[in-house]
Amino acid sequence: MEGLVMAGQLILALSILVSLHEFGHYITAKWFKMRVDKFYLFFDFLFPVPTVLNFALFKKKVGETEYGIGWFPLGGYVSIAGMIDETQDASKLATVPEPWEFRGKPAWQRLIVMLGGIIVNIILGILIFWGIRYHSGNNYVTLSEVNKQGIFAGKIAEEVGFKTGDKILKVNGNVPVRFDEVTKLIMEDDAKYTIERNGETKEITLPKGFLDKLADGKKGEFIQEGLPFDIKEVAENEGGGGAFKAGLKTGDKFVNVAGKPVKFYQELAPILMDNKGKTVSAIIDRKGALDTLKISVSSEGKIGIRPNSLLKDTHEDYTIGQAFNAGFVEAFAVVGTNLKGFKKIFKGEVSASNAVSGPVGIAKIFGGKWDWANFWFLTGLLSMSLAFMNALPIPALDGGHALFLIWEMITGKTPSIRVQEIAQQVGTVILLGLMVFAFGNDIFKIFK
């Protein structure tokens, strides 16, 4: 069931993004009175060969344009008369351009058409983040609040020198206000953390290749807010009801479980997993008095409690104008992160296998539970990432077409149809290679 929910969210998100991206090309082409022959969500052929397995799940012709949904569920396209792309045979463009054809229009108009999809994805991304910020405001934890108890250090953080309970004083010489700024700075070169541990100040510099290890996902989490907690609810039957049977009550705090000290909620789960099906001794704090309980752990590593985080959030409500500003900044921060990510890949600090995800990897990010807030956040993020990727100067992508048109506008010379055809073929091979790599990478990670 979780798999279906993941797939459903991915398909809906991609349908929205692809349809609106292609609408950007469609509406600008119509604006300049170009003839649009087809508008398709997904391909009605075996991509990238437009003459193989031609059929659609749905199609309807309205005026001069055929609208449809293809059977090949990757991407989509708008077929504009007189344009060399993956949907057309360049040999058909040897005749004199017609006034209603793409090639018969001025270069500046063709450039706007090629950038239309990117522009719409950017607008969509900004609108989504704007809506999220206006609806939900902004919840965050301040660094000063986290430093009251200290951080929780995951395994990969421990490898580079962090310890649970450390207090973050500075990152790259700056004092962040929000705790989420602390973890975002791992994208920076030579990120340096100034910490306090047991009253002493230390410095930790993230080593080369650290981001690649983190992206691999096998080493666990980096640093998180340490989550001090008490018991919010004790369930009689959940997880075998071990906590209920042992006499645990609302408001109790764990001090030690199975001989290990427990300060944060993140420390409790692995202890219980290590003691599945066993009875553990737990020291608890009940209104300042210590008591020892024997708690049965279920075969799933549960004892039937719900925690109440004692970490305080800061909430900000936004006006429409403030939400727009926040959404605008958040949307373009995605582009900045993509740029930094590409830089890390080219410098060899992050491997392509850890940086590239296919449909399976993206679906997992959506998760197995349908959460509209999470869905729209990820859709906004994907919209900005799609705009960034399409702007890359790779033949067959919008950025590649735009590069030819900018060259034409500067030099006054139009590249020959043969040159454009070869560039399109090279770009298509590159895209196919990336697709195969992304799918293969997904499969490899499943069985890894």
Walk me through the structure.
By secondary structure, this protein is of the alpha+beta class. The protein folds into 3 domains: 2-133 and 374-447, no CATH class; 143-225, Pdz3 Domain (Roll), CATH 2.30.42; 229-309, PDZ domain (Pdz3 Domain, Roll). The protein contains 14 helices and 17 strands. The protein has helices at residues 2-31, 107-136, 143-146, 155-159, 180-184, 210-216, 242-246, 265-274, 320-346, 352-355, 359-366, 372-391, 398-411, 417-447; strands at 36-43, 56-62, 65-70, 72-80, 138-140, 151-153, 167-171, 192-197, 200-205, 223-225, 229-234, 253-257, 260-261, 279-286, 289-296, 305-309, 314-316. It has a 4-stranded mixed sheet, covered by helices on one side. The protein has a 4-stranded antiparallel sheet with strand order 13-12-14-15. A hairpin with a 2-residue loop joins β12 and β13 (260-261). The longest helix has 31 residues, at 417-447. The two termini are 23 Å apart. Pfam families: Peptidase_M50 (PF02163).
The proportion of residues in beta strands is: 15-25%
Summed up, the domain count is 3
Instruction: Please give the radius of gyration in angstroms.
Output: 27 Å
Largest sheet: 4 strands, mixed
With strands numbered from the N-terminus, the spatial order across the biggest sheet is 2-3-1-4
Number of strands: 17
* Bulk shape: elongated
Q: Give the helix/strand class.
A: alpha+beta
The helicity comes to 40-55%
Distance between the termini: 23 Å
Mean pLDDT: 86
How many H/I helical runs?
14
